[in-house]
């Protein structure tokens, strides 16, 4: 077995290869003067079981194109079996047509991956799990929040409450709370625009307690900041924000910290300065099954 490291996931790919006790391959990736990608895999893949690890954060289009080139090339070079590991699946939030005439980009990206005919697809905390159901290849969504819950022990939280910023995020808070042995709840969120949200008042027992806001993605930070303001009004002691995928568009991280977060953390599905825990164990364990 060989693990191939996409340029967006070098450290995660290495961790996966170490846990699987197999070789790691780093493709040669360059750009032509006009911006087109040139990719070369410098090893013989004939008859190999290949695991490609490539997340698709910003720049999403380049990272997706690299993923497709990797998948198609390893198949063409004679790999016996190919697993596509896409820890962060960009475009997953556009999984349905919200307005007439919109492209359902998640559906399009899945079709493109299917066209390269990998034997399986793994992703982590995809925005809507049902979006990968019915694909032409076996697809599985892995859950990172139990790992997050275990990591939270290191913060020595006082009477912690894990909080989803909306009803849809309650499952993330519940999964992490199961590992930590803590309470969990969620807030009521109303989205005003792609970058603006408001939190509706809700009875919360947070006075003097440490609260951890958990979601699948932190992008602009608007949702987290609104939750922070509400929790401060309810006299929470310390407030942390965490997620699986740290998209952190623009100056989101600075804005969250300036709004009063004690700390911000994420997994390494997107490799950033706040990646505190790795999803390599759940990826490697699933591949080894």
UniProtKB/TrEMBL annotation:
<dbReference type="GO" id="GO:0006015">
    <property type="term" value="P:5-phosphoribose 1-diphosphate biosynthetic process"/>
</dbReference>
<dbReference type="InterPro" id="IPR005946">
    <property type="entry name" value="Rib-P_diPkinase"/>
</dbReference>
<keyword id="KW-0460">Magnesium</keyword>
<protein>
    <recommendedName>
        <fullName>Ribose-phosphate pyrophosphokinase</fullName>
        <ecNumber>2.7.6.1</ecNumber>
    </recommendedName>
</protein>
<feature type="active site">
    <location>
        <position position="189"/>
    </location>
</feature>
<dbReference type="InterPro" id="IPR000836">
    <property type="entry name" value="PRTase_dom"/>
</dbReference>
<dbReference type="GO" id="GO:0002189">
    <property type="term" value="C:ribose phosphate diphosphokinase complex"/>
</dbReference>
<feature type="binding site">
    <location>
        <begin position="219"/>
        <end position="223"/>
    </location>
    <ligand>
        <name>D-ribose 5-phosphate</name>
    </ligand>
</feature>
<dbReference type="GO" id="GO:0006164">
    <property type="term" value="P:purine nucleotide biosynthetic process"/>
</dbReference>
<comment type="similarity">
    <text>Belongs to the ribose-phosphate pyrophosphokinase family. Class III (archaeal) subfamily.</text>
</comment>
<keyword id="KW-0067">ATP-binding</keyword>
<feature type="binding site">
    <location>
        <position position="166"/>
    </location>
    <ligand>
        <name>Mg(2+) 2</name>
    </ligand>
</feature>
<feature type="binding site">
    <location>
        <begin position="34"/>
        <end position="36"/>
    </location>
    <ligand>
        <name>ATP</name>
    </ligand>
</feature>
<comment type="function">
    <text>Involved in the biosynthesis of the central metabolite phospho-alpha-D-ribosyl-1-pyrophosphate (PRPP) via the transfer of pyrophosphoryl group from ATP to 1-hydroxyl of ribose-5-phosphate (Rib-5-P).</text>
</comment>
<dbReference type="GO" id="GO:0016301">
    <property type="term" value="F:kinase activity"/>
</dbReference>
<feature type="binding site">
    <location>
        <position position="191"/>
    </location>
    <ligand>
        <name>D-ribose 5-phosphate</name>
    </ligand>
</feature>
<keyword id="KW-0963">Cytoplasm</keyword>
<dbReference type="Pfam" id="PF00156">
    <property type="entry name" value="Pribosyltran"/>
</dbReference>
<comment type="pathway">
    <text>Metabolic intermediate biosynthesis; 5-phospho-alpha-D-ribose 1-diphosphate biosynthesis; 5-phospho-alpha-D-ribose 1-diphosphate from D-ribose 5-phosphate (route I): step 1/1.</text>
</comment>
<feature type="binding site">
    <location>
        <position position="215"/>
    </location>
    <ligand>
        <name>D-ribose 5-phosphate</name>
    </ligand>
</feature>
<keyword id="KW-0479">Metal-binding</keyword>
<dbReference type="GO" id="GO:0005737">
    <property type="term" value="C:cytoplasm"/>
</dbReference>
<feature type="domain" description="Ribose-phosphate pyrophosphokinase N-terminal">
    <location>
        <begin position="1"/>
        <end position="115"/>
    </location>
</feature>
<dbReference type="Pfam" id="PF13793">
    <property type="entry name" value="Pribosyltran_N"/>
</dbReference>
<dbReference type="GO" id="GO:0000287">
    <property type="term" value="F:magnesium ion binding"/>
</dbReference>
<dbReference type="GO" id="GO:0004749">
    <property type="term" value="F:ribose phosphate diphosphokinase activity"/>
</dbReference>
<dbReference type="GO" id="GO:0005524">
    <property type="term" value="F:ATP binding"/>
</dbReference>
<feature type="domain" description="Phosphoribosyltransferase">
    <location>
        <begin position="150"/>
        <end position="253"/>
    </location>
</feature>
<keyword id="KW-0547">Nucleotide-binding</keyword>
<feature type="binding site">
    <location>
        <begin position="93"/>
        <end position="94"/>
    </location>
    <ligand>
        <name>ATP</name>
    </ligand>
</feature>
<keyword id="KW-0545">Nucleotide biosynthesis</keyword>
<dbReference type="InterPro" id="IPR029057">
    <property type="entry name" value="PRTase-like"/>
</dbReference>
<dbReference type="InterPro" id="IPR037514">
    <property type="entry name" value="Rib-P_diPkinase_arc"/>
</dbReference>
<dbReference type="InterPro" id="IPR029099">
    <property type="entry name" value="Pribosyltran_N"/>
</dbReference>
<keyword id="KW-0808">Transferase</keyword>
<keyword id="KW-0418">Kinase</keyword>
<feature type="binding site">
    <location>
        <position position="127"/>
    </location>
    <ligand>
        <name>Mg(2+) 1</name>
    </ligand>
</feature>
